[in-house]
Batch of 2 targets.
Target 1
Amino acid sequence: MTVEPVPIPLDCTDGFNEAYYGRPEMLLDPGARQACSAWSFIDDRARQEFDISLRRALGSGAWDEAFGHLRSRPAYRGSLVLLRATH
């Protein structure tokens, strides 16, 4: 078996969390979160705390200070991989 990382483009339109690596505001959109099944395992209180925390970090500039370089990164190599069976 081979494992190849799959780069995620900055403008990726698929609805999974890492697709928003350079656009964290999308994670505040309930529709965008609903498209990612992982959010269905998170209770309302945790979701609300996440919203507050991310809004605060974006509003204060803390997110951009720490991760702003991701906004212009053309692709991100995260957890997305392609597995190929070999004989």
Target 2
Amino acid sequence: MAAGSPGSAEAGFSDPSAEVLDQAAEAFGLLAAPTRLHMMWALAGGECDVTGLAERVGGALPAVSQHLSKLKLAGLVRSRREGRRQVYYVDDPDVVTVVRLMVGQLTERAEQSGATVRRLRGAGA
């Protein structure tokens, strides 16, 4: 990168450590599965037990439980016991922000491109 360019260290951006990059890649890798991303989206809106998450994301209970275990091991979700139920939640506002931003932006783009396609079809295109 050229000196003074927006991404250079001179502009106040230094490269993250290899450890930080590894952690970010692991987190993004876990979120690359549509079911886990849907679960994170749901949990960003509030806590839920495994049965409620399975219903919401349309997954089998054992599969959703396995996804939750992976997300929990990675530190992306936490849980607490409520009687006999295990309730899951996202305890990191930064994770919530990233998920909401990415999914929100892609939803907005899809809606805009859908509106463009509908306008073109309505005009006889």
